[in-house]
Amino acid sequence: MDEVNKAPKMVGADVPERGRIYYLVDDQYDFIPLAKEFFDWNAATNRAPATLKAYCSRLLWYYRFLWQRNLHILDATPADLTEFVIWLCNPYRESAAVSPIHQASPLTASSVNLILQVVGAFYRFLVRRGMISESPVRYVDVPRGKWLTERDLLAHTRQGRTVVQRMELKLKEPSRLPPIVSEQDFQTFIASIHMGQDPNGDPSGFRDRLLCLMLNEGGFRIGEILGLRMEDLEFGKQGVHVRFRPDNENGARAKAGYGRDRFVHLPSEILGLLDIYLTEVWIEASPTTSHLWIILNKRAKDRDGGSTYGAALNVSAVEQMFRYYSEKSGIKLHPHVLRHTHATALVRSYLRDGEAVDWKFIQERLGHASVVTTMQTYTHLTNEDRKWAYDRYQERRSERAAQRTGR
């Protein structure tokens, strides 16, 4: 057997009442025990399916490193973690002998840091379970900055100089703008989605087009929009409710969690298309679910050969749909890019009008847990954005000067 094929792998398993959970297995396809406990614990604490999948894929990097070094998870040292970071930054990491080289890594600094965060969380789990006495992932105390204090609702109760723990081993991440799509490119992408003369002439195309428009105009996460059900729609209030549900049949889940549902207003044009979709497309499919987004391909089958026509649409189907239209239109687009595009457009709308950005409104519309998250993500303005803001400032300044001289 090829050596690479003996390395740990990631597999999905359908668990009753929990849906699909991803695990790590060895070359005999046996579960890796400690990792399985960690994933089961995260599933039991209602982590979102997408989060569990991300945790598994990130922890796989570490297990492949340990396998290559013939090192057990409980025997790793802080020095091994340093070697792990070097290994991650090496494009030839899969070779048996890995040495530091001076060329770009295929993993970004943020990707490496996300992997390290999951490894750190895994070791904290093992410490709590009494498997090890101390984690090899080292942390240092740093003063709690103002932005961290804002995240801490109990900050006012703490005495003295508060500190937080941060990983000692962490790569510096360059500042970068969140990815967005221009209006012209978005229209090119939308134009590639075929739609017949009437909605039922191409029901899947009508659905796909509307789904893209709602993502672009509502700033939804993919799990949020796929979790929408009929009872979440409120045409009278001109919007939809985003509600957390742990039991959606398609595995979709709002990230916010219990008690943090929100209402998202939508433009009248989108609501008009949504009304047509419901009355002419959705109802005609005789859906087997109350989910808004359903499978409209009459030939669609599940793994057992049963028809899935009218069943709830899942994340993988939407991602496949975006890949198809990206190739067809020549505009590479991902659902989350439309969320960034919507948020950026909101920020720019304030700047163009010369107004202070209402970060609280944008935070609540996007469903961020903290306004700080919103500000950290979307305050990276381009030179053009700064010019808009400055030009508007100069206009207001000139207007005030003219008013003073006219008195």
TrEMBL record:
PROSITE patterns: CB (PS51900), TYR_RECOMBINASE (PS51898)
Signal peptide feature range: none
GO biological process entries: DNA integration; DNA recombination
Record-linked SUPFAM superfamilies: DNA breaking-rejoining enzymes (SSF56349)
Domain spans labelled Tyr recombinase: 176-391
Keyword terms: DNA integration, DNA recombination, DNA-binding
GO molecular function, one term: DNA binding
Domain Core-binding (CB) stretches: 29-127
Highest taxon above the source species: Bacteria
InterPro entries (UniProt xref): CB, DNA_brk_join_enz, Integrase-like_cat_sf, Integrase_catalytic, Integrase_recombinase_N, Integrase_SAM-like_N, Tyrosine_recombinase_XerCD
Family listed: Belongs to the 'phage' integrase family.
Protein name (database record): Transposase
